[in-house]
Design brief:
The protein is mostly beta strands and 629 residues long. The chain folds into five domains: 2-144, Sandwich (Immunoglobulin-like), CATH 2.60.40; 148-264, CalX-beta domain (Immunoglobulin-like, Sandwich), CATH 2.60.40.2030; 269-374, Immunoglobulin-like (Sandwich), CATH 2.60.40.2030; 379-475, CalX-beta domain (Immunoglobulin-like), CATH 2.60.40.2030; 481-628, Jelly Rolls. It is 2% helix and 50% strand. The chain is built from one helix and 51 strands. It has a five-stranded mixed sheet with strand order 5-7-3-1-9, covered by helices on one side. Strand 46 (557-565) and strand 47 (572-578) form a beta hairpin. The longest helix is centred in the N-terminal third of the chain and has 13 residues, at 2-14.
């Protein structure tokens, strides 16, 4: 029953994945390949469940279906002597191997050699490694077969033998003979190639002086001696792998074929708890953790810090001599950052260990700490002083900008709304200008505008300095014609039209049926053509209607850019108006409206006609929206 339960559990676990077809894998430079980890797996029939592993040449970039099939059976029958419940498995992105579960049934009788073979049929988005496309599962009979394997597949040993000052010592890795031994067994132990940053190096961290072993009696204690070498450095735990090969007189027990040996560091070392610390230059004192490995010491550990990269007394102040008290695993070193006035790039200094107490070494994994000091003197401000809403409710996108170059660090802030009675509005609560960017957009949502305006402030700034300017959101509407506009400048005008038509002043005379026309008589003016309209100083302008010449056949404007300026020198593009070819004199066909992205007191509106159905520019009337003081 226990085997049936295991089989059912295996089926439930592995059939929970749905197949997902993907286009492919690979890093752009190489093709994804897949193959079985072993070509032969030897396993005792009473193991219950075991696993076949498919390894990939690189980490999967997509969910990837993998398909297997049973191709050979030797004195075994699927569904009776063994079960391979899942032969198609979708492997998640980020994995580098896939595990297929199978189950064996122990018939409790002696059997001749039994096996079954599985082939890797396909891996979606990759290719099958021909040399590793097939694995044979050789099933050992626990009543008659013999196999050799390590007693433990994972062993931890000390870098130095406890209580000894010797630089080397021998540890013992036990090997077992499984089954009923009737004749001598010979095998070899080899070291697998090292992989990874914590891989132990042979003849540096360890040595295996004996590799071939002969066992004559099952009662013998079989030990693989391994010499552990203390490298006199404080480092991370080191790992190496022993492998049993070339077995004579028995089989290799695949489940116990390899032993992972971890050499645990036991030298006292000192290191920085963080490799990098970031803080704003106005943060005052910052803490940098200093720690001991492998743990607390029995005595006080004194150390002296070194600093490179910046000037003491200008950029920082630091006490150099510190002590970790006995029984503590570390302390926090306090460094005071000094605010250096003026806009500068972020600055960095490096902390190291100038000296440490006796019998303590600097841990090679983290011997320094970089302290990145972030400048905060770049000003953060609203891009414009005033923003407008035409209706009693709506959304306003308010840009907040850095006055200067993009910074190498994030700038965070909030915007506080000062709401008078009768106004209901909200703003994004927490905002960030990411490193390398110069602006962020605050979305203000107005649900009720029961007052003429409300103000907002930038607060809680981290990484920059708030300018202190208050932004304002105001309600605007129609401005009567009597409050009027004047034409400040124009590119050309048609003085041979029937006055007042043709003249630029016709664009602001309150009559949409009169019109400004660019010069069409020889020498005619070509597009683009513009007029600049002066807004009265007491008007906060927030939008504009532009009506082109009202005619069924002579309405020429097709595209026009609209700009705002406070000084007629620096222009801010608000958008582009577009018209279809005229079909009638219905004013709605000729009128285009634009709300500006902010309110501006007085100043100038420039309308620049860039394209037309003929090479002319025409405007019947400019109507502004805003409010008057």
């Amino acid at each position: 029953m226990r085997y049936i339960s295991l089989i059912i559990g295996c089926i439930l676990a592995l059939t929970s994945c749905n197949e997902v077809k993907v286009s492919g894998n690979g890093d752009g430079a190489s093709v994804l390949t897949a193959g079985f980890r072993d070509t032969v797996v030897t396993v005792f029939e009473n193991i219950g469940t075991d696993t076949l592993y498919v390894d990939f040449s690189q980490v999967l970039q997509e969910e990837t279906p993998v398909v297997l099939s049973v191709v050979e059976e030797e004195n075994m029958q699927e569904g009776k002597d063994y079960f391979l419940p899942v032969q198609e498995l979708t492997v998640a992105a980020g994995e580098k191997s896939a595990a297929f579960c199978y189950a064996l049934v122990d018939d409790n009788v002696s059997n001749d050699t039994r096996s079954f073979s599985v082939r890797l049929v396909s891996v979606n988005g990759g290719v099958v490694d021909a040399q590793a496309s097939k694995v044979r599962v050789k099933v050992l009979d626990d009543e008659s077969d013999v196999a050799v394997g390590f007693k433990n597949t994972e062993v931890k040993v000390a870098e130095r033998e406890p209580g000894s000052t010797a630089s080397t010592y021998f540890c013992q890795i036990p090997v077992e003979i499984y089954g009923n031994m009737h004749k001598p067994v010979q095998f070899e132990v080899v070291v697998l190639p090292a992989e990874g940053s914590n891989a132990a190096e042979e003849n540096v961290h360890f040595r295996v002086p004996e590799s071939v072993f002969v066992v004559n009696d099952a009662s013998e204690s079989v030990i693989v001696p391994v010499e552990i070498i203390d490298d006199d450095l404080v480092n991370a735990d080191r790992v190496f792998v022993l492998d049993i090969v070339n077995v004579v007189g028995a089989e290799v027990y695949t489940e116990q074929k390899r032993c992972i040996v971890t050499i645990e560091n036991n030298d006292m070392g000192i290191y920085f708890g963080e490799a990098r610390v970031e803080a704003y230059e106005d943060a005052g004192k910052v803490k940098v953790p200093v720690k001991l490995t492998p743990g607390a010491a029995d005595t006080d550990i004194a150390f002296v810090l070194s600093v490179t990269g910046l000037e003491e007394g200008v950029d920082y102040d630091l006490t150099k001599e510190w002590t970790i008290p006995a029984g503590q695993e570390g302390i926090d070193v306090e460094m005071e950052l000094l605010h250096k006035a003026g806009i500068e790039p972020d600055r960095m200094l490096t902390l190291g260990f100038a000296s440490v107490g006796d019998n303590v070494m600097v841990f090679e994994e983290q011997p320094t700490c970089e302290v990145n000091i972030l400048d905060v003197d770049t000003e953060l401000d609203f891009k414009y002083a005033e923003y407008g809403i035409k209706d009693s409710r709506g959304n306003i996108e308010v840009p907040v900008v850095l006055n200067g170059e993009a910074l190498a660090h994030d700038v965070s802030f909030t915007v506080n709304l000062n709401l008078p009675e009768g106004v209901e509005a909200t703003a994004d609560e927490s905002l960030i200008i990411p490193a390398g960017e110069t602006s962020a957009t605050v979305l203000v949502k107005v649900s009720r505008m029961g007052a003429s305006h409300f103000t907002m402030e930038i607060q809680n700034v981290q990484g920059a300095t708030a300018s202190g300017r208050t932004g304002q959101i105001s309600q605007f509407g129609d401005i009567s014609a009597s409050q009027g506009l004047t034409v400040e400048e124009y590119s050309s005008q048609a003085e041979n039209e029937a006055a007042p038509n043709g003249f630029a002043t016709a664009a602001v005379d309150g009559d949409p049926n009169t019109f400004w026309h660019s010069r069409w008589a020889e020498p005619s003016a070509v597009l683009p053509q513009y007029i600049i309209v002066k807004v009265p100083d007491n008007i906060h302008v927030g939008g504009v209607d532009v009506i082109r010449r009202i005619a069924a056949s002579n309405s020429d404007n097709k595209l026009a850019e609209v700009f705002l300026s406070e000084d007629k020198s620096s222009w801010d593009l608000q958008g582009v108006l577009e018209w279809e070819k005229a079909k009638s004199v219905d004013i709605t066909e000729h009128l285009r409206h634009m709300d500006f992205n902010h309110l501006q007191k007085g100043g100038y509106i420039k309308i620049n006609v860039t394209d037309g159905f003929r090479n002319n520019a025409q405007i019947g009337e400019v109507i502004i929206y805003g409010y008057a003081e």
